[in-house]
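Researcher: Predict the fold of Bifunctional protein FolD.
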Amino acid sequence: MTARILDGKAFAAKLRAQVADAVVGLTKRGRPAPGLAVVLVGDDAASQVYVRNKVKATEGAGMRSIEHRLPADTTQDALLQLVASLNDDPTVDGILVQLPLPRHLDSAPVIAAISPAKDVDGLTIENVGRLAAGLPGLVPCTPLGCMLLLDAALGDLAGKRALVIGRSALVGRPIAQLLTQANATVTVAHSKTRDLAGEARRAEILVAAIGQADFVRGDWIAPGATVIDVGINRIVENGTARLVGDVAYDEALPVAGAITPVPGGVGPMTIACLLANTVVAAHRRHGDVAPRWSLKED
Ligand SMILES: Nc1nc(=O)c2c([nH]1)NC[C@@H]1CN(c3ccc(C(=O)N[C@@H](CCC(=O)O)C(=O)O)cc3)C=[N+]21
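Model: Structure tokens for Bifunctional protein FolD follow.
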């Protein structure tokens, strides 16, 4: 047996097409094209690449991209002022502050300053609380992308045993919330978990969000399990750099039922979900009913 490869690039293209349709729908009703503001502080090379990809995808979906590149020595006050001005800007529907920030800046107050209605990363306390309470809000992009992939791969998740490895605020925790909401039976594992391999072997759905290359081995995976690899790790092998996930992909492939590759899995979905969240935020701001996304075969 060999796993079905969940082609995140193709699924992301499908989602971006749905987003573009929704943008057309908005403009037909006389609404402005949704605007996404991305704030990048400093000159981290990897962040530059993400931001460039985001800008391209945003414009490709018929939306407006607003880019703010600030020098590495930007002050906390200047950043807070920029966020305040984006909150007040009626042409801005979504605000993303690229993380991590340079070390001299404190991200918590910056995130707290983002208007929850424009918080397309779903990181404000308001949106975190809404997700925990099962209320409508804005959901972090990577978790949303994982759920859309799982929905496309498996359909109904009710009663399925899911293991999430990792409990970060941006990924692990919100994925666990969403899986719980979808009626899966959810376990959250982390660095203190005993017998992680044993936990993994029981899982019909395995979400790896650890941040360590090839951490999950092939013999940890239950035959036929659906594996979502959230990790994006840059490794250097024989002098050449490449991206690998948190799952030992070649080992997992003959065991799993379905698996996301890295690159080309969750990463492209994250960016497509950022656009999707911006369109949802725009609909709500205008009092329109927000679209629902589905990547299931029709
Ligand atoms: N506030 C905030 N929200 C984020 O969502 C956020 C962030 N800050 N800071 C940085 C990380 C990283 N991130 C990625 C998104 C897509 C790819 C992606 O599409 N990767 C491609 C590979 C790209 C390449 O080749 O370098 C792939 O997996 O196929 C990667 C990384 C979002 N992040």
